[in-house]
């Protein structure tokens, strides 16, 4: 079976990236196409795939650069803050919305409350070293957590707030991961193009007594984040 030309070019480019090192600027597309003896279209396709893979990062008006390795997040009930710090990254959050809404049928089922009951809706952009990597929206019952708005710092860890301030003990959770394309609003918040692949996580968690804690929708940039799970028989 013959290998597509752009894939062969992509493989050669990976070797070049390793030589250049993290943060280095990639030579112009025209220069690379001439050096590799291929068309600019073929070179452009190979570069686009490396951007989607997270190996390259395009900066508007500046060029294309060798990206830092992807952040690997564990699929587990752990703090986002702790997971990033363990990889040498500085975590951060930017508040988008913190409001009260009414539970629809899905939230009613996920949170164990009645349709129409009040729900906290917390939406924040997740940052790593000041750069947006995810958009997280969390839903929690107002009846169960009436003081959440008083004790939670919008830029702080919700996990830590729940455990340290509200005495919550996480027991188990369920998580679904899928690939999606961001909406124009989501792409704008994440400073990405709509063509960039995204990883969407849906999570529900319960405490040690089996009571629902939260329902979470997390959208991550596919070029910046990967996930790891430990599997046991």
Describe this structure in words.
With 233 residues, this protein is α+β, with helices and mostly antiparallel strands. The chain has two domains: 5-66, Orthogonal Bundle (Arc Repressor Mutant, subunit A); 71-228, 3-Layer(aba) Sandwich (Chorismate lyase), CATH 3.40.1410.10. Helix content is 29%, strand content 36%. It has helices at 5-20, 29-36, 40-52, 80-85, 105-111, 148-151, 158-165, 184-189, and strands at 56-59, 63-66, 71-74, 91-102, 118-128, 131-141, 170-181, 197-207, 212-221, 225-228. The strands form three sheets. The protein has a six-stranded antiparallel β-sheet. Strands 1-2 form a two-stranded antiparallel sheet. A two-stranded parallel sheet has the order 3-10. A hairpin with a 2-residue loop joins strand 5 (118-128) and strand 6. Helix 1 (5-20) crosses helix 3 (40-52) and helix 2 (29-36) packs across helix 3 (40-52). The longest helix is centred in the first third of the chain and has 16 residues, at 5-20. The two termini are 36 Å apart.
Task: Note the topology.
Blueprint: H1 5-20, H2 29-36, H3 40-52, E1 56-59, E2 63-66, E3 71-74, H4 80-85, E4 91-102, H5 105-111, E5 118-128, E6 131-141, H6 148-151, H7 158-165, E7 170-181, H8 184-189, E8 197-207, E9 212-221, E10 225-228
Parallel strand pairs: 3-10
Antiparallel strand pairs: 1-2, 4-5, 5-6, 6-9, 7-8, 8-9
Helix pairs in contact: 1-3, 2-3
What can be said about this structure in brief?
This protein is α+β, with helices and mostly antiparallel strands and 233 residues long. Helix content is 29%, strand content 36%.
């Amino acid at each position: 079976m013959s290998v597509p030309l752009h894939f062969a070019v992509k493989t050669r480019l990976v070797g070049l990236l390793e030589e250049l090192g993290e943060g280095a600027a990639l030579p112009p597309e025209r220069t690379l196409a001439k050096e590799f003896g291929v068309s600019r279209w073929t070179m452009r396709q190979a570069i686009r795939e490396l951007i989607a893979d997270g190996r390259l990062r395009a900066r508007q008006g500046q060029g294309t650069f060798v990206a830092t390795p992807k952040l690997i997040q564990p699929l587990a009930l752990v703090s986002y803050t702790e997971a990033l710090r363990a990889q040498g990254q500085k975590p951060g959050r930017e508040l988008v919305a913190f409001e009260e809404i009414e539970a629809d049928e899905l939230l009613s089922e996920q949170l164990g409350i009645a349709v129409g009951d009040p729900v906290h809706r917390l939406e924040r952009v997740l940052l790593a070293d000041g750069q947006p990597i995810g958009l997280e929206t969390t839903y929690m019952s107002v009846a169960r957590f009436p003081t959440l708005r008083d004790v939670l710092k919008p830029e702080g860890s919700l996990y830590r707030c729940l455990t340290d301030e509200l005495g919550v003990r996480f027991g188990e959770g369920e998580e679904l991961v899928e690939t999606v394309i961001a909406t124009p609003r989501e792409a704008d918040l994440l400073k990405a193009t709509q063509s960039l692949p995204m990883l969407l996580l849906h999570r529900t968690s319960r405490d040690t007594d089996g009571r629902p804690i939260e329902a979470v929708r997390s959208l991550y940039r596919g070029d910046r984040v990967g996930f790891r799970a430990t599997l046991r028989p």
